[in-house]
Structure formats: structure tokens, C-alpha cells
């Protein structure tokens, strides 16, 4: 087994005697050391990112230790830093800790205390590095697995579609119905994979959106057309109510279309035979928002200050509804309603989480509530588009 290389410590202090004493002590504990006499020299040495820890004096001529620390954090160098400060500089210590220092040690320092603080900072850094490696491996695995699953499922959909269209021989109406059901089931799996991938992209900041002015009514009409056959087979009435001409919204049309697909698809799972799903879209002025709508906007992470007009979109059904316990966390990842056990088709609990991330990325909010009599309603509030998209 190869011997692990000694951890490298950069000592940054303008007093050579103190730096030399530190160097001798650290080398006794099998650390490798370098010395920088000022902040500029320290920043140059740290650009190589070869150091495992920095012992940084707070007060130095030229660039202070605090400024060195701030520059390190701005440049995304995550090397842990322990500040060295004289007694009586507690306010500076607080400033350093806020700026991202791992710890501090007072001069004149006790070498045993310093070793304890160094070991703790280095151990924390090793843990953080291992966590980042595991997170990256998890992300790579999800993307690889999702890609390897999605490709064959897409091929299956294509093959079934060829049979359904009768290109391989005559099929009777019953066979067509079964083939269409198989295609829908495969498309559900593809949707779950897409939700999983996009949740990862949202959380890692890698989600790419192409924002442009969009007519929300046109998107809803397309969604209704897509689900009309499935609703008819389930004997469910799917209805859309829209204004003749509502305001546009600034969104990525493909992503918002998937939000609508998730909401309608969920409703189809919970609505009983002979039930109804109603979609609506209208423009509304800020002054006419209800208390519930104002509260939902206030609770969201989006900033609605300065927004005077909104587009309100709702998907309502007369299904089983949502329990009061589930309403509080229905948009969390992998959370499904208790009513999930009563439906024929399952899910991964990612659809609504994706909807929330997507809607908030467009500066809007989404919430769920139960209807007065039966069923539930999901409402989306998005700022009306005014001006140019940048």
C-alpha cells in the first residue's frame, strides 16, 4: 500500500521568526510547509491549489489576512483557512468567520491547541471533498441510468406505434386500445425519467431554459388535445375554459408544457370513471387577487414586487382530493399522496416537485387545495409578460 503524502500547510505571516517556529513544529508532526510573507505571495502560491490548509495572519502590511480570505472565497478556492490573530482582535475574528474561515487561533498560540484545530479543519475538508465526490458520482449515475433506460423505452414506443397503425397487419379496435394503453404506460416511464433528470438539473444549476413570450392558452389547448384520447378511454370529461385573449407569459414553452402534462396526468390517475377535469386560464390584476392567492404568492420563493398583472392557470378535478397532511408537503421530492395506494397507476413522486421548480424558475408560484365539495385544484400564478425578453 502506497504511503500517503504529507499534508501541505501554507503559513502566511509577515514575521519570519513566528513563521519559522510554526514551520519547525508542523514538520515535527509530519506536515509539509510553505511560507508566504505577505498576502500577494500567498494568493500566488494558492492558485496552484496544492495546499491542504492555510494558517493566515490577520494583520499584515499590504493586503490584510481578511482580504486574502475574501479573495480566496470569491475565486472558489475551498482550501480551509485558520486565522492567526493577537489577543483583543475578537471583532476581526467574527469578520473572518463570516468570510469563511474554518477556525482561528490566538497569538501567542499553544501548539497542542493549534494541532487540534488543524486536525479538525483538515478532517472537515476531507469529509467535504468525499461528499462532493459522492454527489458527483450520484449525479453521473442518475444521468447514465436515465439515458440507458430512456433509449430502449423510446424504441419500444416506436415499435408499438407501428403495430397500432396497422403497418404490420390489420389490428382490431380492442387490440388498438391495448396498444394505446401500452404506449401511455411507456410514456409515463419516460415522463418520470425526464422529471428525475430535470430535478437534478434544477438543483445543480444546469437547467437551461429558453425564455420567450408565450400564449398560455395555446399551451393548454395543446395539452388537452394530447390527453383527450386517454380521458375518453377512462370516461373522463376534460374541459378547458380560457379568455378570448389573455396576457402572454415569459416562460420556456417546452418546460411549461411538461408542467401541464404532469398536472393533467396526475388528475387522470385520481379521477373516477365518469369524473371531470377542468382547466382554466385567465388574466387577473394584482388588486383582484384573493387572500388565498396573495398568501400563496407570499409563501413562495418568487419575488412578485412590482408585478401588477398575472396569468392564473388552474387544473381542477372531482377525484379523491388530498389529505390535509399531504397538502403541506405535496410538492416535495418523492412525496406522494396517501391516496396513491388507491390508484391503478403509480409514480415516483417527482412530477409535482418538478412543477414547483419549473414554475418558480419562471418567477411564479404553484399551490394545491381541496375543492369545497370534492376533488382538488392546482393553481399556477405567473407574472404577465410586459416588454422585451433579455
Structural class: alpha/beta
Helix and strand succession? EHEHEHEHEHHEHEEHEHEHHEE
In the predicted model, the low-confidence regions spanning at least 5 consecutive residues are 340-346
Quick check: average pLDDT? Answer: 85
Strand order of the largest sheet: 2-1-3-4-5
Question: Any descriptors?
Answer:
390 residues; alpha/beta; Rossmann fold; Helix Hairpins; Heat Shock Protein 90; 3 domains; five-stranded parallel beta sheet; five-stranded mixed beta sheet; 11 helices; 12 strands
Quick structural summary:
The protein is of the alpha/beta class and 390 residues long. It contains 11 helices and 12 strands.
Protein architecture, described:
By secondary structure, the protein is an alpha/beta fold. It has three domains: 8-109, Response regulator (Rossmann fold, 3-Layer(aba) Sandwich), CATH 3.40.50.2300; 129-208, Helix Hairpins (Orthogonal Bundle); 211-383, Histidine kinase-like ATPase, C-terminal domain (Heat Shock Protein 90). It is 48% helix and 18% strand. The chain has eleven helices and twelve strands. The strands form three sheets. A five-stranded parallel β-sheet has the order 2-1-3-4-5, with helices on both faces. It has a five-stranded mixed β-sheet with strand order 7-9-10-12-11, with helices on both faces. Strands 6-8 form a two-stranded antiparallel sheet. The protein is elongated and about 90 Å long. 29% of the residues are buried.
Amino acid at each position: 500500500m502506497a504511503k500517503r503524502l504529507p499534508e501541505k500547510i501554507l503559513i502566511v505571516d509577515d514575521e519570519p521568526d513566528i513563521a519559522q517556529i510554526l514551520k519547525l513544529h508542523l514538520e515535527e508532526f509530519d506536515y509539509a510547509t510553505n511560507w508566504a510573507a505577505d498576502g500577494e505571495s500567498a494568493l500566488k502560491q494558492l492558485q496552484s491549489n496544492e495546499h491542504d490548509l492555510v494558517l493566515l495572519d490577520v494583520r499584515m502590511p499590504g493586503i490584510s489576512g481578511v482580504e486574502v480570505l475574501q479573495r480566496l472565497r470569491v475565486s472558489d478556492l475551498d482550501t480551509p483557512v485558520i486565522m492567526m490573530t493577537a489577543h483583543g482582535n475578537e471583532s476581526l475574528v467574527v469578520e473572518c468567520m463570516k468570510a469563511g474561515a474554518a477556525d482561528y487561533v490566538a497569538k501567542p498560540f499553544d501548539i497542542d491547541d493549534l494541532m487540534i484545530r488543524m486536525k479538525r479543519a483538515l478532517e472537515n475538508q476531507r469529509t467535504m471533498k468525499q461528499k462532493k465526490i459522492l454527489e458527483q458520482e450520484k449525479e453521473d449515475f442518475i444521468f447514465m441510468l436515465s439515458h440507458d433506460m430512456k433509449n430502449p423505452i423510446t424504441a419500444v414506443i416506436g415499435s408499438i406505434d407501428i403495430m397500432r397503425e396497422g403497418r404490420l397487419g390489420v389490428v382490431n379496435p380492442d387490440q388498438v386500445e391495448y396498444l394505446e394503453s401500452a404506449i401511455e404506460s411507456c410514456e409515463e416511464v419516460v415522463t418520470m425519467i425526464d422529471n428525475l433528470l430535470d430535478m437534478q438539473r434544477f438543483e445543480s444549476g444546469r437547467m437551461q431554459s429558453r425564455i420567450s413570450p408565450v400564449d398560455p392558452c395555446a399551451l393548454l389547448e395543446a395539452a388537452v388535445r394530447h390527453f383527450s384520447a386517454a380521458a375518453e378511454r377512462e370516461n373522463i370529461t376534460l374541459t378547458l375554459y380560457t379568455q378570448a385573449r389573455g396576457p402572454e407569459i415569459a416562460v420556456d414553452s417546452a418546460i411549461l408544457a411538461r408542467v401541464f402534462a404532469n398536472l393533467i396526468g396526475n388528475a387522470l390517475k385520481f379521477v373516477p370513471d365518469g369524473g371531470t377535469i377542468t382547466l382554466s386560464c385567465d388574466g387577473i390584476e394584482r388588486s383582484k387577487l384573493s387572500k388565498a392567492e396573495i398568501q400563496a404568492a407570499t409563501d413562495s420563493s418568487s419575488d412578485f414586487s412590482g408585478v401588477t398583472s398575472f396569468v392564473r392557470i388552474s387544473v381542477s378535478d372531482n377525484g379523491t382530493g388530498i389529505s390535509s397532511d399531504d397538502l403541506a408537503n405535496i410538492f416535495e421530492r418523492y412525496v406522494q399522496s396517501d391516496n396513491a395506494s388507491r390508484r391503478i397507476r403509480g409514480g415516483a413522486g417527482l412530477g409535482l416537485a418538478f412543477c414547483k421548480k419549473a414554475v418558480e424558475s419562471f418567477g411564479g408560484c404553484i399551490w394545491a387545495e381541496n375543492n369545497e365539495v370534492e376533488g382538488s385544484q392546482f393553481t399556477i400564478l405567473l407574472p404577465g409578460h410586459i416588454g422585451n425578453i433579455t
